[in-house]
TrEMBL record:
CDD domains assigned to the protein according to its UniProt record, in alphabetical order: SAF_DH_OX_like
Taxonomic path: Bacteria, Pseudomonadati, Pseudomonadota, Alphaproteobacteria, Hyphomicrobiales
Molecular function terms, GO-annotated: nucleotide binding
Protein name, per record: SAF domain protein
Pfam annotation, one family: GFO_IDH_MocA
PANTHER family linked: BLR7815 PROTEIN, STRU PROTEIN
UniProt superkingdom: Bacteria
SAF domain span: 361-426
Length: 454
C-alpha cells in the first residue's frame, strides 16, 4: 500500500487527514514546513501557550499569513485554513480532528493531552518522549482501551529504531542490540544551559534564528535525551537496558558489529537483546572515524552458518566471526519526516512504533552535590540528568523519574552522581502526573512481582 497515493486519493475526494498540532517548537515547526507539501494532510489547528510564537513559526517555515487566519476549528475545517490557539483542550475536542501530534516536550502536558485524546477518540502521534518515558506504558494501555492508536513520531529516533528492529525480526534475525548515536563524553553529564552552545559549536547567529532552546538542547548533551529515547525503544521493542544503564562506547559505523556484541564474544554488551547509544567522540575528545552521531542502528545475529555465509556473500559488514552484523541509517530528520506517522496511523491503522511494556525507566541523577531545600529544574537544567535503569531496579529503589524532577524541592542532600528517590523530594500527591505515574508503578510492580519502594 502506498501512503502517498492513498493520501493523494483522500485529497482528491475532499477527505484530507485532519490534524491538530500541540506545540510549535522546533519539532512542530519542521512538521509545519512539510505538511502543505504532502497531499491529503490538513493542519486544522496549532495549539501553543504562546500563539504569537506559533504564528512566527508558521511564517518562518514559509506559510502565508492568510493560511492561519481561521478564528476557530470550525472555520478552519470549512476553509481549509488553520486555527491558532492557546487552548489545547478545545483543539483536541474540536469536531473533525482525527489525529493529534503532541509535541510540547512537557511530561505533565503530554500526559494530560493523551488522556484528552482518549476521551475524545483522537489518535495520538507522540513526539513527547519525556511523557512517554514517564508514563507511556500506562498511556498506551489507556489508548488501547479507548480504541485509539498511540504512536511514536517517525523522524525521531525511537520510531526509526523500532522500524529497524521490526525489519530485523520480520526477516528472521535475532536482535542483539538497537540504538542510536550521539555526541558524548562523561563530563557532559554535568553540562548546563550556560555551557551547552560551546559544546555544540553553534554560533550566536545560528542560535538566534534556529528555534533553539538551551535547556532542551542541553538534555541532548547531558545524556538525558538518550536515556529517554532508549527507554522508549526498550519499552516498545521488548529489549532490556543493561544493569548499569548506558555505556556510550565510542564507535563508528564500521565497528558496530564488533563493539555491540556480548562481552563473552569480545564486545561491550552485558547480554544480547539490549539497547545502547554509541558516542561520536573517543574518550580523549578525538572524533570517531565514520561516526553515527545523527543516526540509528540495529545489530543482528546470523541464526545459522548458511545465513553467516550469506552475510559475507552480499557484502554485509560483520565482526570477525561473521556472526554479528549491523544495519544503520546515518540520519534522522525529526519533524520533516513526521507525516509518515500521521499517514501510517490514518491509512494503515498502524503506529510507527508504540510502547508495549515497562522494561526501562529514566531516573533523575544529581549533576553536582545538591543541598536540602534546592529546587529541581528538570531535564537539561542545572541540577539533574536522566540515567537509564531497568524498570524493576528503579521500582525496587524508589527511583524518582526524570519527568517529575522539575519544580519540586529536595528534603535532604544528594551527592553528585547519585540517583534521586521519591523520598528525597517534597511533592504534592494531587499532581495528575504524579498520580498517574504512581498508578503505573503499582500496576507493573504487581504484574511483575517486583517489590515497590515508595
Amino acid at each position: 500500500m502506498s501512503l502517498h497515493r492513498t493520501l493523494a486519493a483522500r485529497a482528491e475526494a475532499g477527505r484530507p487527514v485532519r490534524i491538530a498540532l500541540i506545540g510549535a517548537g522546533k519539532f512542530g515547526s519542521m512538521f509545519l514546513s512539510q505538511a502543505p507539501r504532502t497531499p491529503g494532510l490538513h493542519v486544522v489547528g496549532i495549539a501553543d501557550l504562546d500563539p504569537a510564537r506559533a504564528r512566527a513559526a508558521a511564517a518562518r517555515v514559509g506559510w502565508p499569513a492568510e493560511r492561519v487566519e481561521a478564528r476557530s476549528a470550525a472555520e478552519a475545517l470549512r476553509t481549509g485554513g488553520t486555527w491558532i490557539t492557546d487552548d489545547a483542550e478545545a483543539l483536541i475536542a474540536a469536531e473533525g480532528v482525527e489525529v493529534v501530534v503532541e509535541a510540547t516536550g512537557h511530561p505533565g502536558a503530554g500526559i494530560r493531552h493523551v488522556l484528552l485524546c482518549c476521551r475524545h477518540g483522537r489518535h495520538v502521534v507522540m513526539v513527547n518522549v519525556e511523557a512517554d518515558a514517564l508514563a507511556g506504558p500506562l498511556l498506551a494501555r489507556r489508548a488501547a482501551e479507548a480504541g485509539i492508536l498511540y504512536s511514536f513520531a517517525y523522524g525521531d529516533q525511537p520510531a526509526l529504531i523500532a522500524e529497524l528492529v521490526d525489519w530485523a525480526r520480520t526477516a528472521g534475525f535475532p536482535v542483539v542490540c538497537a540504538g542510536k548515536g550521539t555526541k558524548y563524553l562523561p563530563a557532559f553529564h554535568a553540562s548546563t544551559p550556560d555551557t551547552v552552545w560551546s559544546h555544540y559549536g553553534f554560533t550566536p547567529e545560528q542560535v538566534a534564528v534556529g528555534d533553539f532552546n538551551p535547556q532542551m538542547f542541553n538534555s541532548f548533551l547531558d545524556g538525558t535525551k538518550s536515556a529517554l529515547e532508549m527507554a522508549a525503544v526498550a519499552n516498545a521493542c521488548d529489549l532490556d537496558p543493561g544493569p548499569d544503564g548506558l555505556a556510550f562506547p565510542p564507535c563508528g559505523v564500521d565497528d558496530l558489529p564488533n563493539v555491540l556484541r556480548p562481552r563473552s564474544e569480545g564486545g561491550v554488551l552485558p547480554f544480547p537483546g539490549t539497547v545502547e547509544v554509541v558516542s561520536s567522540l573517543e574518550r580523549d575528545g578525538r572524533p570517531v572515524f565514520r561516526d553515527l552521531r545523527w543516526g540509528v542502528y540495529v545489530v543482528i545475529e546470523a541464526p545459522s552458518d548458511y545465513v553467516r555465509r550469506c552475510f559475507a556473500e552480499y557484502g554485509l559488514r560483520t565482526d570477525a566471526s561473521g556472526r554479528y552484523a549491523a544495519m544503520y541509517k546515518p540520519y534522522h530528520l525529526i519533524g520533516l519526516e513526521l507525516g509518515l506517522s500521521v499517514a501510517s496511523v490514518m491509512v494503515r491503522g498502524e503506529p510507527t512504533g508504540a510502547t508495549r511494556d515497562f522494561r526501562a525507566d529514566v531516573v533523575a541523577t544529581a549533576k553536582r552535590d545538591l543541598k536540602a531545600g534546592e529546587r529541581l529544574d528538570g531535564e537539561g537544567g542545572y541540577t539533574v540528568y536522566g540515567r537509564l535503569m531497568p524498570a524493576g531496579a528503579s521500582l525496587a529503589v524508589g527511583g524518582l523519574p526524570i519527568g517529575l524532577a522539575h519544580g519540586f524541592t529536595l528534603t535532604r542532600p544528594v551527592a553528585a552522581g547519585t540517583p534521586l528517590r521519591w523520598q528525597d523530594v517534597s511533592m504534592g500527591a494531587d499532581d495528575p502526573a504524579v498520580r498517574l505515574r504512581r498508578e503505573m508503578e503499582a500496576l507493573f510492580a504487581r504484574e511483575s512481582g517486583t517489590a515497590l519502594r515508595t
